[in-house]
Amino acid sequence: MDVTDFLEPLNKEDFLLPKAKHPLSLSQIIVSYYKKNMFPNLENIDIAIVGVKEDRNAKYNSGTKYAPDYVRKYLYQLFQGNFNVKIADIGNVIPGKNVEDTYLAVKTIIAYLIENKVIPIIIGGSQDITYANYLAYESLGQIINLVSVDPSFDIGSGEKKINNNNYLNSIFTHKPNYLFNYTNIGYQTYFVDQDAIELMQKLYFDTYRLGKVRENITEVEPIVRNGDMVSFDISSIRQSDAPASENASPNGLYGEEACQITRYAGLSDKISSVGFYEINPAFDKGEQTSHLTAQMIWYFIEGFYSRKNDFPDKISKESKEYIKYVVSIKDFWNKIVFYKSKISDRWWMEVPCPTKMEKQYERQHLVPCSYKDYQTACNEEIPEKWWQVYNKFS
Asked: What is the C-alpha separation between 394 and 375, in angstroms, rounded?
């Protein structure tokens, strides 16, 4: 199947400003799909930008379909950093006759990019597109961890039809299921009912309140590093920094913190797709949300080109590039093994996996962590991340 069947070329007049034509700006470096029959050659491309102008399942935030070109307007004005980017903009997904057709198109395009070792940056559109992103991994037979930056848990309240407020139900209940872990970063308790919080605990999923995240933003790095895909709801950022959503709230992340999180996503050796959703230009004051999202994408790109490629797989974790720490905890049957990379100073801990499950979960039993988790083990406490993964294997 030719993915160009699902994509339409960009119209420069929709977003490309004269001041973006500086020879060192991204507008002159990104290889863009401007004309039919001139689709970019992805052979030497690292990252592909794809817009999804779909919001028919946007509950209370209709208008997000116009966001992709608004974000491009500011992204194309930015300069590349101290790295040589190899990025293609492959245009916008052609909306299907119905939303399910759009999901199929997104699934096919994302799977094609990932299979060809190109990281897709999705500019939505409503956040239910995350479901289509997930289906791409299913089609590749890859078990994944999903990280969502969101002020709430999008599991809805009994609606059967998928929308941007309940798309997680479709992911959690999908058969066969390829989701190993779900992580929410930055939820705000007054937007989440207690039953939903208890459900997340029962499923051994990771949830981090906004206050906990902002307490020490560096602790978010290993949380993001554990993901394969990231879904970023722009309403997780406070309204004063990102007003472009009907669901914007006075509280949330600061713009700088959002950029830090997306940089962490770029740095992760595991992250293979990222999406930005719920940007509604109709509510954007001075287009500042589109501008901020462009900067968040820039930080993701910077992170990607700063990757260390030091994930301690089965072959390399015993090499001299890692320091191995073994911690014994009193009255606990299992020793906890930590690995610290000499290249990046990042930490992982190993969770014992039953032999019959090792092949299936070979990418899940080495859990990214921080020095703080190592200190926790040294203080005779079992790190929470360790327990959660262990219980999933039990």
From this structure: 25
